[in-house]
Design brief:
The chain is an alpha+beta fold and 285 residues long. The protein contains 7 helices and 18 strands.
């Protein structure tokens, strides 16, 4: 497991302090109690409690959701107990998180015509965990027109909402599309990306949606994925939108596409066929 405290180089793991956010949750200030060297507090995802902390000589870390216990871990301090708890709840099914809180977030965000890629539990055989964030996500926004205006709006949004969004990066992707006849086309699309922590990912998505600048067409929709996965040089292929005339679409950074066009197209066609076969199989049941 990779565990990162270096996001805050002055972090002292043994100092009894409850951060304002932790993993899935935000701290309820009303729940914080300090008595005889012990500190207690509760964290919430929307109106659901997700963590209960009791930190005395050791830290008891209770993970829960929808009034159901998920896991209890104990360690020398909060960061160690959180790390151990994250690992214990990072159950896998084909490499995906089974944690009901991640499922809830994915469903809540997807309702807004936003694509949320369910994160892998492991990346390169490592479980990645940040403290106190848990996970950091990359929010990629394809921009087809009025790019400079859109960039200005998002820069202002970042300045006014630094507690929700962080970093702004510009890039160009190659967007591959397979139409209804199986023909593959490639389009260059400029993108603007932000990052957000796990506990703030829903707020970040809704904030970006509120600008009215997100496109509703599936292949141009806001795309949210694990920031570590976003750094991996891989082709992302997804089932398309028959109503808009394309069966599948794929996303890859332009530079990587330019380096090996033929291989990328072949991989895209192969992955598209696999996806379409899976869809047909599901429809046959």
């Amino acid at each position: 497991m990779e565990f990162y405290n270096k996001l805050n180089p002055d972090f002292d793991p043994d100092k009894k302090h409850l951060p304002p956010y932790l993993g899935y949750g935000k701290l309820s200030q009303d729940s914080v109690k300090r008595t005889n060297g012990c500190i207690e507090g509760r964290y919430y995802l929307h109106d659901q409690q997700v963590y209960n902390i009791h930190w005395n000589d050791r830290c008891d870390f209770t993970s829960c959701y929808d009034e159901e216990l998920i896991s209890i871990t104990t360690d020398k301090n909060l960061s160690s107990a959180f790390q151990k708890n994250w690992l214990s709840t990072c159950m896998m099914d084909s490499g995906n998180f089974l944690d009901p809180r991640m499922v809830y977030l994915a469903q809540s965000i997807s309702k807004h015509s936003i694509y949320f890629k369910h994160p892998q539990a492991k990346v390169d055989d490592r479980v990645m965990c940040y403290f106190p964030a848990g996970k950091i996500f990359d929010l990629m926004i394809p921009v087809r027109e009025n790019y400079l205006h859109t960039l200005d709006v998002f820069r202002c949004l970042l300045e006014d909402n630094g507690q929700v969004l962080s970093t702004l990066e510009e890039n160009i992707i190659s967007l591959l599309t397979m139409d209804m006849e199986g023909k593959v086309s490639v389009e260059e699309v400029r993108t603007i990306s932000f990052s957000a922590t796990l506990s703030r990912i829903y707020d970040a998505a809704i904030l970006l949606e509120s600008t009215g600048l997100l496109l509703k067409i599936k292949k141009y929709a806001l795309f949210i994925r694990d920031a570590v996965e976003a750094m991996m040089p891989s082709l992302f292929v997804q089932y398309g939108d028959i109503g808009d005339g394309y069966q599948t679409y794929g996303i890859l950074e332009k530079q990587l596409y330019e380096q090996c066009r033929n291989n990328v197209k072949n991989d895209f066609i192969s992955n598209s066929r696999n996806i379409l076969e899976q869809v047909l199989t599901l429809k046959s049941f």
